[in-house]
Amino acid sequence: MNCNTPTDIGFSFAGFRQRGGGTDHHEDGFGIAFFERSDSGRLGLRQFHDNKPSHLSPVADLINHHPIKAMNVIAHIRKATTGEKNSLANTHPFVREVWGEQWAFAHNGQMTDSFIRRTQRLHDNGNAEHYSPVGMTDSELAFCYLLNRLKSTFKSRPSDEALFAFLTAQCRYLSANGLFNCLISNGHWQLAYAGSLLFYLTRKAPFGEAHLSDGEMSVNFGDLTTDKDKVTILVTIPLTKNETWQQIAVDECLVFQDGDVVFRDTPSKKTYLSIEDGIALARSVGASV
Amino acid sequence: MNCNTPTDIGFSFAGFRQRGGGTDHHEDGFGIAFFERSDSGRLGLRQFHDNKPSHLSPVADLINHHPIKAMNVIAHIRKATTGEKNSLANTHPFVREVWGEQWAFAHNGQMTDSFIRRTQRLHDNGNAEHYSPVGMTDSELAFCYLLNRLKSTFKSRPSDEALFAFLTAQCRYLSANGLFNCLISNGHWQLAYAGSLLFYLTRKAPFGEAHLSDGEMSVNFGDLTTDKDKVTILVTIPLTKNETWQQIAVDECLVFQDGDVVFRDTPSKKTYLSIEDGIALARSVGASV
Fold first, then answer.
1. A131 touches chain B (CB under 8 A)
2. Do A200 and A232 meet the contact criterion of CB atoms below 8 Å apart?
3. In this protein, which residues make up the domain named Glutamine amidotransferase type-2 (chains A, B) (predicted)?
């Protein structure tokens, strides 16, 4: 979620968490990172990770019962493909500090064996000096690869334009070395890269009613919002059936800020996968959608 | 807490959280980091941070009601002296990844203005390349200083002996530049450095009963433990009255592993502050005990 006003993710999370062992099989833990603003506007990060399936987790109950209003949220439910199940160290989102900002990252996909071996070798030889994975997933390895490239290339924070162009190029490289869908946020912006399947929806005035695909829940956002609110939700597979979700093209990179698209890099030839084809592609490389 | 078997910190936390706005005035948020072992023995980190006072926080309720069994825990209740109150970015423990390990850090004290200015200048000039503070506290600045010195000195992880000696020297430097009590853990060991006040207690067989100083709560650890369990609790001010707490000397550094002291560096002249003198010293430099 990326929005222009502190927003409670409760409705989307209520549907999403059901996919963690309820309506779907992503039952090997979950994680969620909330970027919140203090009274003076300073960003802070609150993280929850649990190795229990999200549809049963007491931590997920807390998130549902005590709504947290945030500017940016990244949530991930895990189906273990690489690395131990039920291990906290393997649950996304992964977080690292970059130039005094917290960066959160979630990945859906599967990096190739040759990428994993090559990148692991860089770490073993001491040539990945800034960041190293804590857990055993290909995803955290890809995140550390991307951040090591970033810190080696820029001594200090570049302009947003240079940063987004650089991150797009790195995501394209990662997508060429595996199945790579990701979300990255520093709390100010949220970057979405679609290696296969990724959708988004921007809710703004006039707000209507939404019905969850994964549960008996509806909400009329008109009752909960002001006319100025703008809230963008990004997901692998749409959470509601009665709203029009936009699909991100394969190998397209978008960056959102205050609920709006502020950067877009689209491949010259736009392609879109059907949800069925996206799921089949994930299965064929041993990943999970 | 540092122990040799996964242990629930519930009893100590029940007393500790009362000091966050209940029996004491540390009401500007709290944080707690749990290092847990997965089934295969791999360490993961679960963090909770809240900008609400710990004695009222729903996050603290969750921790009390759903006991989490961990090998190492660092908890901190905050009384803001430097940096905005009620800001998530300013709540301890601070966490950074070091050589593929999560390191958690909590500080009690106050760094001098000249240390803050000097260290801030290193960051502004790009001479603190590995870690930068996210929030506005002197504590996170001290932690980043220590980790930047560590990464600049050792390209890869040194032996524990070399590491503990280096960390002791850095803590001594920080203690000479402010009031500096700290706890640091990578999940395997926990380092305690006493700039003024720090106590510890090791509970092991034969286990007895303990009564909280901050609430109407007693527990007979004999009912909850096995004869092999060894659990060390480290605190600024003892949590119970009927047990014998060991005081750590001023500028002494201890490292605990599996509940035992595995490293100790004591100044040639041992001094101990009374709790009253420790509180007075903290107040005199604008810190809070």
1. yes
2. yes
3. 1-289
Best residue of B48, B71, B87 to probe chain A, by most A CBs closer than 10 Å: B87
Per-position pLDDT tens, chain B of length 289: 999 999 998 888 888 888 888 888 888 889 999 999 988 888 999 999 998 888 888 888 888 888 899 999 999 998 887 777 778 999 999 999 999 999 999 999 999 999 999 999 988 887 778 999 999 999 999 999 999 999 999 988 999 999 999 999 999 999 999 999 999 999 999 999 999 999 999 999 888 888 888 887 888 888 888 889 999 999 999 999 889 999 999 999 999 999 999 999 999 999 999 999 999 999 999 887 6
**A128 CA to centre of own chain:** 24
Cα separation of A254 and A232, whole Å? 12
pTM tops 0.90, yes or no: yes
What is d(CA A273, CA A275) in angstroms, rounded to the nearest whole number?
6
Every domain of chain B and the residues it spans: 2-285
B45 vs A contacts (CB less than 8 Å): 49, 88-89, 134
Q: Which residues are CB-contacts of B188 (< 8 A; sequence separation ≥ 6)?
A: B43, B72, B101, B257
**C-beta atoms of A100 and B46 within 8 A:** no
Q: Which of residues 24-53 of A touch B (CB under 8 A)?
A: 36, 38-40, 42-51
Burial class (CB in 10 A: 0-12, 13-18, 19+), B204: middle
B contact test, residue of A30, A66, A88, A144 with most B CBs within 10 A: A88
Distance CA A231, CA A110 (A): 29
